[in-house]
């Protein structure tokens, strides 16, 4: 996910809740794993295998459907995993609304219901909504991003401002 605008810096391990109060501290939690030599971040709501599957689906052509076999073949080169484990995980992701599917003979063809960027935006909105005072949350967020991310944020705000004037 680092390539999707979530730098891993010192945010690599955050508790999802304050241990004394149980109050959510941060909606986005990161778990660094080594997935075939590339660093991958896991976002709250996805288990390790779910995150790996979603990452692979998000890295494909957004209009392409993918079978369980496609994902299994990729995962099986990196670790020993059962086909049925991949199948049930993709079925669970479908049940949770993260994947849509279409029957193709005896198999299903899957595709993400949201892009990686749409998913990240949802997580950011969830963090903003449930993280206390919005102004303070945004101030802390902006203080943690680097110059390039700040420039991207300013450009996005300018685009939105132009759209709203129309």
Descriptive notes:
The protein is of the alpha+beta class. It has two domains: 111 residues, Arc Repressor Mutant, subunit A (Orthogonal Bundle); 35 residues. It contains six helices and five strands, in the order E-E-H-E-H-H-E-E-H-H-H. Strands 3-5-4 form a three-stranded antiparallel sheet. A two-stranded antiparallel sheet has the order 1-2. Strand 1 and strand 2 form a beta hairpin. The longest helix is centred in the last third of the chain and has 19 residues. It is elongated and about 50 Å long.
Short descriptors:
single chain, 166 residues, alpha+beta, Arc Repressor Mutant, subunit A, 2 domains, three-stranded antiparallel sheet, two-stranded antiparallel ribbon, 6 helices, 48% helix, 12% strand, elongated
**Average of pLDDT:** 77
The number of helical segments is 6
Q: How many beta-strand elements? A: 5
Taking all Cα atoms into account, the compactness measure Rg is 18 Å
Assigned CATH superfamily of the largest domain = Winged helix-like DNA-binding domain superfamily/Winged helix DNA-binding domain
Strand-residue proportion: 5-15%
Structural shape? elongated
Largest sheet: 3 strands, antiparallel
Ends: how far apart?
Answer: 33 Å
* Number of domain units: 2
Q: Give helix and strand order, one letter per element, not per position.
A: EEHEHHEEHHH
Strand order in space, largest sheet: 3-5-4
